Amino acid sequence: MYGNIQKAHLVYTFVDHEGPVRVLAISGSLRRASSNSALVGAAARLAPDTVVMSIYRGLAELPPFNPDLDGDSAPEAVTRFRATLEASDAVLISSPEYAHGVPGVVKNALDWVVGSGELIAKPIALINASARANHAWASLAETLAVMSAHVILEASITVPLDGKALDSNGIVGDDQFSTALRSAIDALARAARD
Fold first, then answer.
1. Sites in the chain below the pLDDT cut of 50
2. Spans of all domains in the chain
3. Is the dihedral of CA 161, 165, 168, 174 positive or negative?
4. How many Cβ atoms from other residues are within 10 Å of residue 68's Cβ?
5. For residues 185 and 23, is the Cβ–Cβ distance under 8 A?
6. pLDDT for position 17
7. pLDDT of 13
8. pTM reported for the whole predicted model
9. Is residue 20 within 8 Å of 87, Cβ to Cβ?
10. Using one digit for the tens of pLDDT, what is the confidence trace for 74-85?
11. pLDDT value at residue 73
12. Which CATH superfamily is domain 8-193 in?
């Protein structure tokens, strides 16, 4: 047992330096017209050929964390989430801030993988959609650090949408935003290969 990680001996990170880097992109918002979901969609479209970015859409399916349900008989949605994380070389998270904190669905998802260890040493990019939202970013970075994930500062950026009603097409079409996202994706991919 490694700290509170029960299965650390089963966790390892391997990136095929010849193949594409597999990035799992997660929007921390369940809202249909979410800026964070738009950023995740734009990032997936802007990823270079050397990066395969998949968007995780199962946050709403994860039950509230309950240690009594964890372990070998974890709920199916949790098992799928863990397997998806395990199969990824890196993770990109774009999360809103609610009342100076991380949304419950994001914290809940992370709680399900604290003990199983899928994020140990995994490179993570934190993408912020608002220049005003820095409390949730700091909280999320702290939670991930405690989980032994590796938040890549060069890949963790703010794309200041701040009330702009842009969908993923609008973000891709904006030179400043698309350049920032491409740079973040490149930095995350470099970290996954190192």
1. 1-16
2. 8-193
3. negative
4. 5
5. yes
6. 55
7. 44
8. 0.89
9. no
10. 999 999 999 999
11. 86
12. Flavodoxin domain (3.40.50.360)
CA 22 to chain centre: 12
How confident is the model at residue 131, as a pLDDT?
86
User: CA dist 178 to 46, 72, 78, 160, Å?
Assistant: 7, 42, 32, 12
pLDDT of residue 132: 86
Show the 3-state SS of the chain.
Answer: CECCECCHHHCCCCCCCCCCEEEEEEECCCCCCCHHHHHHHHHHHHCCCCEEEEEECCHHHCCCCCHHHCCCCCCHHHHHHHHHHHCCCEEEEECCCECCECCHHHHHHHHCCCCCCCCCCCEEEEEECCCCCCHHHHHHHHHHHHCCCEECHHHCEECCCCCCCCCHHHHHHCHHHHHHHHHHHHHHHHHHHC
Provide the pLDDT for residue 60: 96
Structure tokens at 30: 């369940």
